[in-house]
Design a protein that fits this description.
By secondary structure, this protein is of the alpha+beta class. The chain has a 3-stranded antiparallel sheet with strand order 1-4-5, with no helix packed on it. It has a two-stranded antiparallel sheet with strand order 2-3. It has one domain. The protein is built from 1 helix and 5 strands; from the N terminus they run βββββα. The termini are close together. It is globular and about 35 Å long.
Length: about 90
């Protein structure tokens, strides 16, 4: 689940999000079973692989086997959900 949020590098987290060129730049990434979400700049990633590697580094420690997002038998799936649950 991802929702627009602010840049984790010194910006105000109270705001809804940051827009650049009329699109959201930062998204909040949550993992089932983990209370605190992470913030990711989607413009830092040109492809799924790059995003998956960052998420593995950030959230993989919360699972005994890691996220294994590149493997079919992974217990985890990336999906996007906006603040209107779409």
């Amino acid at each position: 689940m991802a929702q627009p949020v602010m840049n984790p590098h010194g910006c105000d987290d109270e705001n809804e999000g940051v827009q650049s060129s009329e699109r959201w730049v930062y998204v909040k990434v949550n993992m089932d079973g983990v209370i605190v979400g992470c913030k990711v700049c989607i413009l830092d990633h040109a492809c799924y692989s790059s995003l998956a590697i960052q998420l593995e580094e950030m959230l993989g420690k919360h699972s005994l086997s890691g996220l294994r997002l590149f493997q079919i038998e992974s217990d985890f799936t990336l999906f996007y959900k906006d603040k209107n649950d779409h």
